[in-house]
């Protein structure tokens, strides 16, 4: 399969020379709002956009998140470039590891990063890393990696005491780095008796983590941290032409296992009401492929997101990508360029 590689940033795999029923070119002349999607009485959506994740920026987030989207940084950079946004702001209303945002900020592709999360522990972490970087780094460098310490940090995390943001934020970070898959309600790596193949320190490389955290501290004057409802943040930046919003809310399936502030059906519907009302904004959303979500965003551009790291090998299209009209046009432009490149090289 031929692939289009943007000169500076990410890659989108071309389907020009090897189309299949599950991969269709999005370079359609149809308006974004009426491209194929699932709705009542419609054939289930099979359109898939293959994005080749870019490793050129490295891993910059200090957090571990299942399904993290740091590899999409190049894809986001290409979209921002096509949109022609100057002095761009990158907004995450539901912050996770923010790996893509950190990469875009460090590379100068965006000039400001907004990290928002209503979860007290997540907010405390980012607030501490940005506002008390030296103290946080010292804690990372000196805190012992033992089961006794893990139990202490778990107690701090469970207390949810927001009066000491540094203490709560570090507890969140400690558990994220020492728990299985970074999931906060999972057990410690290696088990309580540390009899497993991997031990509590398996994902806690102090030197690497200190480097990542220190790098974020150097960018602190260009990072805003908030603890608002994600819907409020979306509304706040929806009229700002310089803002690119990446919306990655709690998912429908397995949400309660991964998020303390998991959404129920009412929350998903409430979010869709806000997002569907700001079509003029530059936003891109990823979700799990639940029928509820496809229905809620049936009037928006939708496709399966297939994230891979090689043009030769397919990824798994397990997530849904939804985009505003302006971002959908940018995606189609990238796909058109990809198809042209594929036809030229065929």
UniProtKB/TrEMBL annotation:
<dbReference type="GO" id="GO:0006298">
    <property type="term" value="P:mismatch repair"/>
</dbReference>
<dbReference type="GO" id="GO:1904047">
    <property type="term" value="F:S-adenosyl-L-methionine binding"/>
</dbReference>
<dbReference type="Pfam" id="PF02086">
    <property type="entry name" value="MethyltransfD12"/>
</dbReference>
<feature type="region of interest" description="Disordered">
    <location>
        <begin position="1"/>
        <end position="21"/>
    </location>
</feature>
<dbReference type="GO" id="GO:0043565">
    <property type="term" value="F:sequence-specific DNA binding"/>
</dbReference>
<dbReference type="InterPro" id="IPR029063">
    <property type="entry name" value="SAM-dependent_MTases_sf"/>
</dbReference>
<comment type="similarity">
    <text>Belongs to the N(4)/N(6)-methyltransferase family.</text>
</comment>
<dbReference type="GO" id="GO:0009007">
    <property type="term" value="F:site-specific DNA-methyltransferase (adenine-specific) activity"/>
</dbReference>
<dbReference type="InterPro" id="IPR012327">
    <property type="entry name" value="MeTrfase_D12"/>
</dbReference>
<dbReference type="GO" id="GO:0009307">
    <property type="term" value="P:DNA restriction-modification system"/>
</dbReference>
<keyword id="KW-0949">S-adenosyl-L-methionine</keyword>
<protein>
    <recommendedName>
        <fullName>site-specific DNA-methyltransferase (adenine-specific)</fullName>
        <ecNumber>2.1.1.72</ecNumber>
    </recommendedName>
</protein>
<dbReference type="GO" id="GO:0032259">
    <property type="term" value="P:methylation"/>
</dbReference>
<dbReference type="InterPro" id="IPR023095">
    <property type="entry name" value="Ade_MeTrfase_dom_2"/>
</dbReference>
<keyword id="KW-0489">Methyltransferase</keyword>
<keyword id="KW-0808">Transferase</keyword>
<feature type="compositionally biased region" description="Basic and acidic residues">
    <location>
        <begin position="1"/>
        <end position="11"/>
    </location>
</feature>
